[in-house]
Design a protein that fits this description.
about 120 residues, alpha+beta, five-stranded mixed beta sheet, globular
């Protein structure tokens, strides 16, 4: 099995496909290029329960490892309230809806006009 060398855009596409396959809700992607050095893209999504959030995180990290050889750093998977996945180029935040509403990460990173569309 050959592993493809990912670009930030191909990693983003793989993240979005994985989340779509796992029925993630309210998926928001934010372009971080020129805004932050932590990565090129941020993805924020919700799952309906802690179990779904943890499962989405596990499947996403497995798919990225199998397809691209990316070993992601993961925090929060055991509780499933807020899981942070750092792939290097793409930072993924998976939330239960109540936790996402409390922290409102989109509003910190999106332009004000874009943030208003997400509420």
């Amino acid at each position: 099995m050959s592993v493809q060398v990912p670009t930030s855009d191909s990693t983003l596409a793989a993240v979005l496909k994985s989340l779509d396959d796992d029925k993630a809700e309210d998926v928001v992607q934010i372009d971080l290029r020129g805004k932050s050095e932590m990565g090129d893209h941020m993805v924020i999504a919700s799952g309906r329960s802690s179990r779904q959030v943890s499962s989405m995180a596990e499947k996403l990290t497995d798919r990225l490892k199998q397809t691209y050889g990316i070993l992601s750093k993961v925090e929060g998977k055991t509780t499933g309230d807020w899981v942070l996945i750092d792939t290097g180029d793409v930072v993924v935040h998976l939330f239960r809806p109540e936790v996402r509403e409390f922290y409102q990460l989109e509003k910190m990173w999106l332009d004000p006009d874009e943030a208003a569309k997400t509420t």
